[in-house]
Amino acid sequence: MTLENLAIVGAGIAGLTTALCFAQRGAASRIYEKTTQLEEVGAGLQLSPNVTRILDQLGLLEPLRAVWFEPEEVVLRSGQSLKKLAGVPVRHHAESRWGAPYAVLHRATLQRVLVKAVTHNPLCQLVLDQRVESPDAQVLRQGLTGSRPDLLVAADGVWSKLRNFVAGAPDITFSGNIAWRVTIPETDAPDFLDRRGVTAYLGPHAHVVAYPLTEAKAFNIVAIAAGVDPGEGWAARSDETQLALLDRAFSGWHKGLRQMLLTAPSPTFWPLFQAGVGRWHNDEKDLVLIGDAAHAMMPFSAQGAAMAIEDAFELAAQVCATGPTKGILAFETLRQQRLAKVRNRGALNRFAYHANGPFRLGRDLVLALRSGDSLARDLDWLYGYRAS
Is residue 143 predicted with pLDDT exceeding 60? Predict the structure, then answer.
């Protein structure tokens, strides 16, 4: 079936990738973005093989590989002693085991590459400074009939307005986790940070992830603490108040790690919200939610952007094969099964990363007995996944 009128709301990673995936199958689209210009915001991203495989199919691997960093290993370390607990080899292992590379880069870098691909594709039209908050918005109507789009893709993020038009859509709730994000210039980064890999430092009720961003000549640092309630006025809190929360969450950690977190320049402070279980499409089956609008999740398996890109690829495949009605139903069934497994893995990681007391001792013992290859096997279902 040919889509005569395909509209996408949101020009983030999910929306831009959706346009490219439909274009690859010959379907034209218009992407509506509320901002007047696409700003280069955000922090680092981990791109695992399940998603770099899709980016390769879209012809984007070459420009990305020219600037991203492929880590030797993903390492787990104690946040209190810095002792290595376990490691999974990824640099050469990823392509031989999962058929695609594992890489890290700045979110802005990926967005730039996606924007360039969209603007150079004749089947994609990017419309800036256009807010769309309803499927009945006049700007969406085309032709003599003035009808709604054949398909409207809501890629408008965790605070999606279009989600309000899906009966039984997921609710958004505070997860009980706070994230502090910062980039540190390479020249200022402490010596204990690994220049060759991705490191997760684990501690009671909190963890820190650090890795180099080659194109930014900096380290990406994200610190996540559970059980920290920022209160209703979190957005207006002073830097001093936020640092006090950070200090309390990481008390007892390695002195160097704590100093790095407390003295890092211009940290961003974000309560993390997540989507529950619910429907992703309306009754008319001409509106579908993807990415964070459908399934915003915690970053405990580093799959937020990856799931959005998988969504885009599989939505285009299903809709272009059978049309919007059947395609949306197949997409929702397929993706909700996949997301349930990813969420379960994230919950397991959260338990392991934030373990305390006897659970921490048991975790460390189990990890000490596992080889890198055996840990990699646990990820075959995730990293080896091939989107349809």
Answer: no
Sheet architecture: strand order including 287-289: 124-127, 29-32, 6-9, 151-154, 287-289
Which token pair is 297? 């999740």
Structure tokens at 91: 């640099």
Q: Per-residue b/e over 33-55, b at no fewer than 16 CB within 10 Å?
A: beeeebeeebbbbbbbbbbbbbb
What the block records as the tokens of 386 is 């091939």
Angle CA(254)–CA(257)–CA(261) in degrees, nearest 5?
140
The pLDDT of residue 144: 44
- First vs last C-alpha separation in the chain: 18
Secondary structure of residue 152 in the 3-state scheme: strand
- Residues 306-324 have pLDDT tens digits of 999 999 999 999 999 999 9
In whole angstroms, how far apart are CA 27 and each of 24, 150, 330? 7, 12, 19
Closest CA to 297 of 345, 228, 343: 343
User: Which helix (H) or strand (E) covers residue 340, if one does?
Assistant: helix 324-353
Cβ atoms within 10 Å of 114's Cβ, excluding its own: 24
- DSSP for 166-184, written as a single string: STTPPPEEEEEEEEEEEEE
Cα–Cα distance for residue pair 217/185, rounded to 1 Å: 6
Radius of gyration of the chain (CA): 21
Quick: pLDDT tens for 196-221: 999 999 999 999 999 999 998 999 99
Distance CA(83)–CA(347), nearest Å, equals 24
Asked if residue 318 lies in contact with residue 22, where contact means CB atoms within 8 angstroms, the answer is: no
Q: Which residues pair with 224 in a beta bridge?
A: 179, 207
Q: Is 54 helix (H, G, I), strand (E, B) or coil?
A: helix
The span from the CA of 179 to the CA of 154, in Å, is 26
Structural domains present in the chain: 6-70+104-171+276-348 (3.50.50.60)
**């579908």: which residue's tokens?**
288
Strand blocks (E) in the chain:
6-9, 29-32, 44-47, 73-78, 84-89, 103-106, 124-127, 151-154, 172-185, 198-203, 206-213, 218-226, 268-275, 287-289
Q: Which pLDDT score, from 0 to 100, does residue 232 have?
A: 57
